[in-house]
Structure formats: C-alpha cells, structure tokens
Amino acid sequence: GVSLKEAFKGDFLIGTAVNARQLDPENEAESQLIKEHFNTATPENLMKAHVLQPRWGHFNFEQADRFIAFASSNQLKVNGHTLIWHSQLPGFMRHMEDADSIRQYVVEHIRTVAGRYDGKVDSWDVVNEALDEDGTLRNSIFLRALGEDYIVEAFRLAQQAAPNTKLYYNDYNIEQPRKRAGAIALIKKIQAAGVRIDGVGIQGHWHVGSVPMEYIEQSIREFAALGVDVMFTELDLSVLPNPWNGNSAELSQTERYSKHLNPYPDGLPDSIEQAQARAYETLFRLFLKYRDQVGRVTFWGVHDGQSWLNNWPIRGRTNYPLLFDRRMMPKSAFHQIIATKYNH
Ligand code: G3I
C-alpha cells in the first residue's frame, strides 16, 4: 500500500515525534515505521533544555546528536523542539531569581544550541507555549525576569545564531479565538521589530468528538495572512474524556481512576475507532484544502502504545490517539487519511 509520506507528497510534509526508544536498535520495528511513513521528525524530549543543558554552562549533546544522525540517515527533515519553554526547565533554573542570570541563560542557551545545529536542523520551535488561554503572555520565569519583549529577543538571538534555520512559534489551543488573537499580536510584534519569524505551529492535541474544525480553518487563514507558514506540529486525537472536565471534578480520586483510566479493557471498540477515523479524515480534508498554506503535519508519536496520552492527565491510562495500534498495525484512521487524498 501507499505510505503516508507518498500520499501527501507535494501537499505537505508528514512528521512524527521521535523519542529515545526509537533510536535504540532493539526497537527496529518502530524505526521501520518511521522510515516508511514519515519525512520529517521532531524530537519529543531529546532537545529540550533540561536534556541539552543539565547544569549551568554544561551542555550534553549526546542524545540530540544521535537523533540528528538517525534523521539524516533516514532522510527525515528535523524540527528542533524547543529553545525557550517555561516547562521542563533545567533544575538549576528553579532557584534562579535575578534577571541578569536568567537573561544570561537565555542568551547562552539559544546561541549555543541554535548555533550548533544551524544547517543540521531545518527549523526550531524557538518559543513554546508562551501564551495563556486569554491571549495574554503566560506568567513565566522569562516574563517575570525579562519583561514582555523576551519573545522578540529570543527570536532575534535565534536569527543571529541560526541564519539557515526556519524559526517558529509553537503553542496549543491557539486555534481558540482569544489565544489565537494573542498569537497574532505576538507574530505581528516580532515582525514589526524587524525580526524573522517563519511560521506558527498549532499543536493539535484534540479529542475525538470535539475537534474545533471552524476555529482551525479560521486559524489557518488568519495565520497565513501574516505571511508565515502554518503547521500542525503535535497532532493526536484522544478517545478518552478529560477527567478534569465538567462535573467529573466532583468525582473522588478513586472514581476518577476507575472511570477514566482504562474504560476499554478489551481494546478500542470499533464504533470509537471509526469515529476517530472520521475525525482524522475531516481534518485531513481541511489540510488538503489549504495545502498551499499548510507546510507540515506532525503526529505526536508513531503508535498508541508510546503516546504521552497514556500518562496524561493521569498516569497509567490506555489511550488510542494515533494512526498505528500497539502492535504497530495501521488503524482505520490511517486508511481513512490515505483514502481522503485519493477521493479528494
Ligand atoms: O524517562 C523518565 C523515566 O525514567 C521515569 O521513570 C518516568 C517517571 O516519571 O519519567 C520519564 O520521563 C518522562 C518523559 O516524558 C519520558 O517519557 C517525564 O516524566 C515526562 O514528564 C515526559 O513527558 C513529556 C512532556 O512533554 C514533558 O516534557 C512527554 O513525553 C512529551 O510528549 C511532552 O510533549 C509536549 C511538548 O513538548 C510540548 N507540547 C505539549 C506536549 C505534550 O505534553
């Protein structure tokens, strides 16, 4: 059968998150799937700041370099993830309070990492998840210490260190109107400062049954109108309810676990697998409609067994958000996505 990357050749790149396990020759079957279906990869955790700079001023590029080598030997483009993010900070930053130290960290981290990988990665998520749901800047260590211009400065530093690398802003829920307005203001501010920003990543962690299709379409149009690439950077469609939503807040911890941990002990029911396939199909129809604006669609993992959604928002769930099942067989969503292309 046709592979994902062949099906969408000429439309947009097809990517996956890659984690340490797939670099291990023992997981040959997983790397095989990556080689067959994807032409771009994002390191799920391997290029985050706490991995690259475990101690202040001491960098460890071992895993990142292995990932880059894996990508280059398998003809995968690379999206670096991520230079500036308030979450998963290196431990030494937890006690950092003075603005001068934090500024020094930002300058050194971007110069060192973006500089080292310029020409070796195609793009960077320069800043990740800097916005709140209401569209204002998130109250993070960076905002508190450096003020509102820290994002423009991060892009400026990245542009200097990595002139050959595309520079992106990446966030979740930025298809939602208020957060989207915040992202648009941010992109305009970077552009008005004469600093380069090449694209915006809509993460795409959605739920089957509530994919916000209209907001997604409006977002593609509005972001593209700013002259930047639009990408879907961490796509997955959870089939489990969010246990913190609605009246489930009233559930006890035990009830929460029994209701939400693994509601399908016998495997994903066919009706839900089909609903998920239709949700993915609807999304891909939209991506194809905007094939001139959408540059890349990256899934946040290869198969259901290795998705972060098995551990979030509570640990030890059994979720089914991706295109391949735990035995690495293609699911209905996979076939439906390919069919979408040929019945377009
Ligand atoms: O590797 C350790 C293991 O040794 C340890 O026993 C275990 C117990 O805590 O933790 C393991 O590390 C976990 C790591 O994933 C590897 O699986 C961390 O706790 C866990 O926090 C980490 O989660 C990652 C998360 O980002 C935080 O960095 C997820 O894999 C990763 O999918 C997720 O990705 C983020 C994007 O970067 C940004 N957008 C949202 C997206 C989903 O949260």
TrEMBL record:
UniProt catalytic activity: Endohydrolysis of (1->4)-beta-D-xylosidic linkages in xylans
Transmembrane segments: none
InterPro entries xref list: GH, GH10, GH10_AS, GH10_dom
Active-site residues from the entry: E234
UniProt GO molecular function: endo-1,4-beta-xylanase activity
The EC number(s) this enzyme carries: 3.2.1.8
Keywords: Carbohydrate metabolism, Glycosidase, Hydrolase, Polysaccharide degradation
GO terms under biological process: polysaccharide catabolic process
GH10 domain location: 1-340
Domain of life: Bacteria
Record Pfam families: Glyco_hydro_10
Annotated family: Belongs to the glycosyl hydrolase 10 (cellulase F) family.
UniProt protein name: Beta-xylanase
Organism: Parapedobacter pyrenivorans
Gene: xynA
